[in-house]
Amino acid sequence: MNAIIVKDLVKRYGGFTAVQDVSFEVASGQVTALLGPNGAGKTTTIEILEGFLAPTAGTVQVLGANPRAGGRAWRARIGLVLQTTSLDAQLTAAEALMMFGALYPKPRRVAEVLDLIDLASDARTRIGALSGGQRRRVDLGLAIIGRPEMLFLDEPTTGLDPEARRRLWSVIENLTAAGTTVLLTTHYLDEAQYLASRVIVLADGRVVADATPDELRAMGGVPVIRFRLPAGTPALPPALTQHVGGNVLTMPSANVTADLATLVGWARKNYVDLTGLEVGPPSLEDAYLALTREGELSHV
Amino acid sequence: MSEIALRAPRLPGLGPVLASQLRYQLTLLARNPRVIAAGLVLPGALLALERGNARHITMAQAAPRIAGLVALSAIAIAFFTHANGLVVAREAGVLRRWHVSPLPAWAYFAGRIMATMLVTAAAGLILVMVAMAMTGVHLTAHAVVGLLVVDMLGALALAAVGTAITAIITSAQSAQPVLMLVYIPLIVLSGAFGAVSSLPHWVHTAMTYLPVQPVIDAGSRALQSSGAIMTVHDLAVLVGWLAGGLLLSFWFFPWDPHRPAHAKPTEARTTDRSA
């Protein structure tokens, strides 16, 4: 069963088209990442799915209902982490969770949510005195207190330190293991790679790719040879030198065998240790950049 | 029956939801320093200044002063603090979160306005007790209850007006200047600090149609226990502002943060959605 169905979605603001003919479906229990550069239309799309915006054309269904017409019962089945933290600073995390929990039919226990978001020790601290990462976790706590079937996460880890990001990822993993459907927007490709089983890339308001992270990497073009050059390395052959940036050789290769032979030949001649040499498909970032560049160019 | 209806779990009743929202808003107000400063400390300090005149003051003189300072407290809490808090919450995205929660829109406002009325009444009661201690006037329980009923009705009308006015305030930074532009002339010209005799006649007349002077007049009558507390005119003015404020809020209240006019179209917002 699909938790989200988007068909021929269009959103215009006056003469500006923010989203153009976007269609996709998200199966229940799936984690899907919506990627795209700023202005690609991902926030507009997610806000239409959340019910904040009305589409100009096309149809949208979330948990079987039109989000614009979703009543209390529908709203009790979804959870949201908005793009910016949105909390009353005078309350404590425990108070905010308790007050929001009272709105749902079968809320999680406050203590359970505090444990999930790793804030049990700060439960009685006013939100205004928490760090940015802790506030973001309170945001997530409010989104999950009602046991949502569908969770929208709009750039949930923006501004968090690496440790806080990892903790938030762990919470999201636990939720998805319990069957929650997640639609995530993020600028961190490692986040999409880690959390999502599917990636939809938007560029210039259109879907330019819809695939698994591995398939997306494969779309990024030819394999890549990567090698961090040790200090004091002799000059590389001219064919390789042009692919060096910041002491790292990153070389897209249409003929891996021939290019590797050149590299290995140079290494043997100069006694360079090739430990750390990598050959593989392009990274998700390479693929993403290639796709979004193509998307922008095709609409110029 | 639709799939949604089949799967919909039983939602909490509206009574418990409203009670929870009332508790939430009371907690927020109790921890808001502006409520203490503008709603209690300022009018309390002005009452304390009356102490020097206590030996010479009569009930007829004390009643309008006490009622005026109670009205000052009411407008500070129910209009200024309420409206400013709404703008700050809206611009911070707090209202947006509530709007997409299972809380009905009316329950949010009902909880918020009821909390404002209760805090206004509590502040009014404290001020009356301070007034009795400072001026030495004796007030009956009947007089105090009458004043508090007027105070709460005034708070209701002022909160409705405050809610409506937030629609034209586009940022948290501009909230205080805009609200003070309304609040200060209204409270001074309505006679909260004493009647202003040098004003043109039309200003006096206009003040009787705005929501502060009727509160002062009715409060003063309540303290003196002189017949009916509210005239039909005063009651009609307050009910009119209440109804007008609620209607305007219903149509124009924005739940989403305002965006600057030059913002990219992808960041524009609409505010209408079903409650």
Characteristic terms for this protein:
heterodimer; A: 300 residues; alpha/beta; six-stranded mixed β-sheet; four-stranded antiparallel β-sheet; 11 helices; B: 275 residues; mainly alpha; disordered N terminus; disordered C terminus
Describe the model.
- The complex is a heterodimer of chains A (300) and B (275).
- Chain A has 300 residues and is α/β, with parallel strands linked by helices.
- Chain A is 35% helix and 25% strand.
- Chain A contains eleven helices and 13 strands.
- In chain A, strands 5-6-7-3-8-9 form a six-stranded mixed beta sheet, with helices on both faces.
- In chain A, a hairpin with a 2-residue loop joins strand 11 and strand 12.
- The longest helix of chain A is centred in the middle third of the chain and has 16 residues.
- Chain A is globular and about 70 Å long.
- The mean pLDDT of chain A is 88.
- By secondary structure, chain B is an all-alpha fold.
- In chain B, 70% of the residues lie in helices and 0% in strands.
- Chain B is built from eleven helices and no strands.
- In chain B, helix 4 packs parallel to helix 7, helix 7 packs antiparallel against helix 10 and helix 7 runs parallel beside helix 11.
- The radius of gyration of chain B is 21 Å and the shape is globular.
- The N terminus and C terminus of chain B are likely disordered.
- Chains A and B meet through helix 1, helix 2 and helix 3 of A and helix 1, helix 2 and helix 5 of B.
Shape of chain B: globular
Sheet having the most strands of chain A: 6 strands, mixed
- Measured by DSSP, the beta-strand proportion of chain A falls in 25-35%
**From the alpha-carbon coordinates, what is the Rg of chain B to the nearest angstrom?**
21 Å
- Largest sheet descriptor of chain B: none
Average pLDDT over all residues of chain B: 86
Task: List segments of chain A where confidence is low: pLDDT < 50 over at least 5 consecutive residues.
Answer: none
Report the average pLDDT across residues of chain A.
88
